[in-house]
Specification:
Chain A: Its main location: membrane. By secondary structure, chain A is mainly α. Chain A is 74% helix and 0% strand. Chain A starts with a helix and ends with a helix. The chains are: A mainly alpha (268), B alpha/beta (261).
C-alpha cells in the first residue's frame, strides 16, 4: 500500500459520503431546513425577549438572530457528526461498517477517512446555511467567511469524532431519538449556542460551569469568533484536545483486540 | 480425520479457534483448512457460530484463542495482506440503496486502493459476469433481492481476491437466483482456482463434489469431501449424516437436553 492507494481510499470514502448526502433527499433537506426553522421561528420569537448586550466579538448591539447563528452552525455539524457515524450502528446492523472495516487499510486510517468525509459534508452544509442566513441580515465581514473555515473544520472534526466514539460504544439504539435526548439536546442547550454565558451565570452558577465544560460551547465560541475574524485560543485548545481524545477513544473502541465490537458480537 | 499436512500454503487456515461472548462459549477449538480451488460448505443451523466465525476471519474482532491465516498471513500480525486477499459477502445486505450499482462498486474498489480506469474495467468485468452490466446506473433500491445479491458478489470480486467468503448468501432468494449464485461461485472455484467458504444452513447447497465442514454448537463435528463424511456416518445422504452427527453430539454427557428436532 503506497500513499497513492491511501489517497484513492480516502477519495472513495469522501465521494461516497457526499453521494449519500445528496441522494438521500430527506437527509439533505432536513439538514438544511432544521437550522432555518430555528432561525425563522425560535429566533424571531425570542427576538424581543432576550436582549443581548455588547460582548466580544461583537462591536455593537446585535439582534438575537445574529447571536445564535454560530450556535446553529455548530448544531449543523453536531447533527451531521451524529448522523454520519450513528447511521452505521443501526443501518442494517453494522452492515456498512463491516464493509469499511474489511478493507486492508489500517483501521485508524479508515476511521480518520470516514471522519474527514463527514467533515467535508458538514462544512458544505454550514456554508449553504451561511448563504441563506445572509438574507436574515446575518452578514459577518466578508473575510469572516474565509476565517471561519478552519474553525468549521476543527469543530466538525470534534463532533464527527464524538459520533464515531458513540457508534463504537453504544450497544443498541432503537432510533435517533435516544441520541437526541441524551447527546444532542443536553450538548446544545447546556452551551453558549442559544444564550450568552453571562446570562446563564446570573441564574445558575452550576449550569454556568457545566456550560463551560461542554466542548460544544467551545465549538460554538470558536466559530463565533472566527466568523468575525478573531481567534478564541481557549476554545480552539479545548476543541483540538477534545478531538484528539474522541479520536483515540474511537480507534480504541474499534480495535479488534480490545474494543467493544467483540463484546457485543458485531451485530449478531 | 484431520486434513493432510499442507505442502502448498493454504488459502485459509484456522486452528484451535475458540471464542466467547462473556460467559457464552460460541466457538470451541475450531480448525480447518481450505486449499486454492476448494469449494467448502460450512454447514450449521442458525446459532451454530457461523457468523462469529466469519467475524473472526474478517478481523471484525479477534478471537480469544487460536490462529487464523490467509495464504500464510496471520490475521493479527499481517492483517493488511490477509484482508487484501479476501472477498466477503456478508449475511446482511450491505449495499447503499440510494447509490447506483456502479457507485457502490467504485466505493468498494477504492477501499482496496483501486481507482480510475483500472477500477472501471474491473467493475465492468464483474458486472458482466453476473449479468448486470446493463443495470450499472440503476439505483440499488430498484433491484430485486436476487439482483442485489449478485451485485454484492460482483463487489466482493472487484479486487480479484483469491479467497471468497459468503455468509448465508442465498437467504431469501428464489430458486433461480440461488441456482445462479451457486453455479457462478462454483465456476469461479474452477476457472480462477479460488478458494470459497460458503456458510449455509441449507444442506442441499453441498453436492457430492463439495467439501463440507459440519459446525454444531460451536464445534466442528466432521469435515471433508461430502462422500467421505456420509460414509463415515454410515448413511447414504448428507442430510442423514448431519442428523446422525448432531444427534450423537446431543447424546454426549454435556448435552442431555434431548434431540435437536
Amino acid at each position: 500500500m503506497t500513499p497513492i492507494h491511501y489517497a484513492r481510499c480516502l477519495g472513495g470514502i469522501v465521494k461516497r459520503e457526499a453521494l449519500r448526502w445528496t441522494q438521500q433527499r430527506g437527509r439533505f433537506f432536513s439538514a438544511l431546513v432544521r437550522p432555518l426553522v430555528w432561525l425563522a421561528i425560535f429566533a424571531a420569537g425570542f427576538h424581543f425577549v432576550l436582549g443581548v448586550s455588547i460582548i466580544p466579538p461583537y462591536e455593537t448591539y446585535i439582534p438575537y438572530e445574529v447571536y445564535i447563528a454560530p450556535g446553529l452552525l455548530a448544531m449543523i455539524q453536531l447533527f451531521n457528526g451524529m448522523q454520519s457515524s450513528l447511521s452505521m450502528v443501526y443501518d442494517r446492523e453494522m452492515g456498512s461498517m463491516k464493509t469499511l472495516l474489511v478493507s486492508p487499510f489500517p483501521r485508524w486510517f479508515l476511521l480518520t477517512a470516514k471522519l474527514l468525509a463527514s467533515v467535508v459534508v458538514s462544512v458544505v452544509q454550514a456554508y449553504i446555511f451561511l448563504g441563506i442566513a445572509w438574507f436574515w441580515e446575518i452578514d459577518p465581514p466578508p473575510l469572516g467567511y474565509l476565517s471561519v473555515l478552519p474553525a468549521l473544520i476543527l469543530s466538525g472534526l470534534m463532533l464527527g469524532a464524538l459520533g464515531l466514539v458513540l457508534s463504537s460504544f453504544i450497544r443498541q439504539l432503537e432510533n435517533f431519538a435516544g441520541v437526541m435526548n441524551f447527546v444532542i439536546f443536553p450538548m446544545f442547550f447546556a452551551s453558549s449556542a442559544l444564550y450568552p454565558l453571562w446570562r446563564v451565570k446570573e441564574s445558575s452558577l452550576t449550569l454556568y460551569w457545566i456550560c463551560q465544560a461542554n466542548p460544544f460551547t467551545h465549538a460554538t465560541e470558536l466559530i463565533r469568533f472566527a466568523l468575525y475574524g478573531q481567534m478564541a485560543p481557549l476554545s480552539a485548545g479545548v476543541v483540538a484536545g477534545a478531538t484528539l481524545l474522541f479520536m483515540v477513544l474511537a480507534v480504541w473502541g474499534y480495535d479488534p483486540g480490545r474494543g467493544l465490537l467483540a463484546r457485543r458480537g458485531g451485530g449478531e | 480425520m484431520t486434513p493432510a499436512p499442507q505442502v502448498t500454503t493454504a488459502a485459509l487456515d484456522v486452528s484451535g479457534l475458540s471464542h466467547a461472548f462473556g460467559p457464552r462459549q460460541v466457538l470451541r477449538d475450531v480448525g480447518f483448512s481450505l486449499a486454492p480451488g476448494d469449494f467448502t460448505v460450512l454447514l450449521g443451523l442458525n446459532g451454530a457460530g457461523k457468523t462469529t466465525l466469519f467475524a473472526l476471519i474478517t478481523r471484525l474482532y479477534h478471537s480469544r484463542q487460536g490462529r487464523i491465516a490467509v495464504f500464510g498471513h496471520d490475521i493479527r500480525r499481517q492483517p493488511s495482506a490477509a484482508l487484501a486477499a479476501m472477498g466477503v459477502v456478508f449475511q446482511q445486505p450491505t449495499l447503499d440503496l440510494d447509490l447506483t450499482v456502479r457507485q457502490n462498486l467504485a466505493y468498494h474498489a477504492s477501499l482496496h486502493g483501486l481507482a480510475g480506469s483500472r477500477a472501471r474495467i474491473r467493475i465492468e468485468e464483474e458486472l458482466e459476469r453476473v449479468g448486470l452490466a446493463d443495470r450499472r446506473d440503476t439505483r440499488v433500491r430498484q433491484l430485486s433481492g436476487g439482483q442485489r445479491r449478485r451485485v454484492e458478489l460482483a463487489r466482493a470480486l472487484v479486487h480479484d481476491p483469491a479467497l471468497l467468503l459468503l455468509d448465508e448468501p442465498t437467504v431469501g432468494l428464489d430458486i433461480e437466483s440461488r441456482r445462479f449464485l451457486i453455479d457462478h461461485v462454483r465456476h469461479l472455484c474452477r476457472s480462477r482456482d479460488m478458494a470459497v467458504l460458503w456458510a449455509t444452513h441449507l444442506i442441499d447447497e453441498a453436492d457430492d463434489t463439495a467439501k463440507v465442514i459440519v459446525l454444531h454448537q460451536g464445534q466442528v463435528l466432521d469435515q471433508g469431501p461430502v462422500p467421505q463424511v456420509t460414509a463415515r456416518a454410515g448413511v447414504p445422504t448428507l442430510r442423514a449424516a448431519f442428523d446422525t452427527l448432531t444427534r450423537q453430539h446431543q447424546g454426549t454427557p454435556q448435552h442431555q437436553e434431548g434431540a435437536a428436532r
